[in-house]
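Thread: Newbie trying to understand structure tokens

Hi all, I'm a second-year student working on a class project, and my supervisor (Dr. K.) asked me to get a predicted structure for one chain before our next meeting. I've only ever worked with sequences, so writing a 3D structure as a token string is new to me. If someone could post the tokens and maybe explain what I'm looking at, I'd be very grateful. Here's the chain:
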Amino acid sequence: MNKIVLASKSEVRKKILLENGIFCNVQPSKIDEDVIKQSLLKEGASPEIISKNLAELKANKVSNKIPEELVLGADSVIDLNGEIISKPKSREEALDILKQMNGKSHFLISSVCISQKGTMIWNHTDKAELVMKDFSENELKKYLTKISDKNLYAYNVYQIEGEGKELFSEIRGDKNTIMGLPITKIKAYLEEYK
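---
Reply by user tm_fold:
Sure, no problem. This is what the structure looks like when written as tokens:
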């Protein structure tokens, strides 16, 4: 069985790793994502670059503390017409986000980085396209009543493995990418690393 340190407190990411035979110790990076995101946006960074940089920063920060271990950092962002949609901080914000995405196509970008000795040794970014159905505001409000606060604030405004499936008319891309961890590429790298 492969073993890795996960620089994230995401239960979904941990579950994906375990389901794929990768044992992980969890050690969240505790970086201030919003500050970094805002700084990168000011520099004109694309959503892909922001996702990749955040994954790398998380992995490197934890890797500095435990240099001999392989550390996996991950980050996901929503790209709506080139604009980043951040996790909601309130239910009102979540409704606004759903209204922005309503009836439109957007991309979910997931980046992963493996670091050792405080330096990135491998990374991968994957993208999935999701087409949201057209809903009335009342339908969106009703959807939000089904989502717990914990899930709403942790996983953006939809949970593709749960209630979120009903939001979309089309999903193009890997389910694990949408859930925040393109596991096929991670497994392939870890097999080579042995």
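A couple of things are worth pointing out once you decode it. The beta strands are 2-6, 22-26, 71-80, 83-85, 105-116, 119-132, 168-172. The chain has eight helices and seven strands. Feel free to ask follow-ups in this thread.
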